[in-house]
Amino acid sequence: MNKITQLFNIQYPIIQAGMVWVSGYKLASAVSNAGGLGLIGAGSMYPEVLREHIQKCKKATSKSFGVNIPLLYPNIDEIIKIVIEEGVKIVFTSAGNPKTWTPILKENGITVVHVVSSALFAIKAQAAGVDAVVAEGFEAGGHNGREESTTFTLIPMVKEQIEIPLIAAGGIATGQGMLAAIALGADGVQVGSRFAASHESSAHDNFKSLIVSVKEGGTQLTLKEITPVRLIKNKFYQDVQELYKKCPSQEELKTLLGRARAKKGMFEGDLEQGELEIGQVAGIIHEIKSAAEIVAEMVQEYEKTRIAIHNNPIQ
User: Fold this and answer.
1) Nearest to 28 by CA among 66, 62, 2
2) Which residues have CB under 8 Å from 87's CB, separation 6+?
3) What's the CA dihedral at 283, 287, 288, 291 to 10 degrees?
4) Burial (CB count <10 Å: 0-12, 13-18, 19+), residue 89
5) What residues does 188 pair with on adjacent strands?
6) Does the model's pTM come out above 0.85?
7) Is the pLDDT of residue 1 over 80?
8) Which positions ≥6 away from 249 have C-beta within 8 Å?
9) Could you say which of 20, 34, 161, 181 would form a disulfide bridge with 295 (CB–CB 3.0 to 4.6 Å)?
10) At what angle do helices 151-161 and 119-127 cross, to 10 degrees?
């Protein structure tokens, strides 16, 4: 057992990211049943919808699962209350200050993990009392840090600075990627894009089909003046780039973004006007598979690659 499998009481140190519009109870329970840690993505759920997903997840798996909570969520008090009432044991927090809610969650027996994009934020999260951190490189899909540190550089820099367990995220979709992250100092990995293109993902089939067709260079980090986000280069993305030519204000960018674009794209399947969040690693995702197949493949690839490296020393 390593630090992450012990911390979460899971078989493999593979965590499925709690992505908006993608990570419902079906995906979370499927990953947990396969030996990883499934996360319900609270960021796209009204409070009572989240309660329903937690209750369904408890029925669908007897194994560990958690909830990802963006701390900037408008109904954060209610969300935290529901998580505590429903007896959730693991919470991943992101997009906000971990100092605010970590003590309350831990007082209720909840294991807390915070997502960071830099060594500085990792140090602050450790000081706030979290049990582990996810260090996410800018290859990742969705909302991202402003530092643009890649996973390969970020993991060893964070490892130098913290004592608590470290989970690597951003650009990891294979067993080889998992082995590389662990070689750099991670204790486990968080995987988003690969699970977004799974059968159990709640993403629209249009979006899943697009993910497996994305090629190298098909995504871009943009909208840094508001909140940096990595998007597929669709019609909406091109509209953003056209607006940038006019040196827009934050308000003009916010007006173009509007409301519910991510839902329109990822959940409702509008590939032209929707916000389509996916990581650079989509370029090596070529097939929609079940969550169980993805976990099993990653574990097999990890072992195969580890043995191959051991049998092929550089001298």
Assistant:
1) 66
2) none
3) -90
4) middle
5) 167
6) yes
7) no
8) none
9) 34
10) 40
Asked if 90 and 37 touch (Cβ cutoff 8 Å), the reply is: yes
114 and 92 Cβ atoms separated by less than 8 Å: yes
Q: At a CB cut-off of 8 Å and minimum separation 6, what does 245 contact?
A: none
Contact status, residue 40 vs residue 20, Cβ threshold 8 Å: no
Q: How are strands ordered across the β-sheet holding 38-41? A: 14-16, 188-191, 166-169, 132-136, 111-116, 90-94, 65-70, 38-41
| Residues 156, 127 contacting (CB under 8 angstroms) | no
Amino acid letter at 25?
Y
How far apart are the C-alpha atoms of 310 and 41, rounded to whole Å?
38
Question: From CA 225, how far away is CA 92, in angstroms rounded?
Answer: 25
Q: For the chain, give percent helix, strand, coil, nearest 5.
A: 45, 15, 40
Read off the pLDDT of residues 25-34 as tens digits, 9 standing for 90 and up. 999 999 999 9
- Kindly indicate the confidence band of residue 147, based on its pLDDT and cuts at 50, 70 and 90: confident
Q: Which domains does the chain have, with CATH numbers?
A: 3-203+284-310 (3.20.20.70), 215-281 (no CATH)
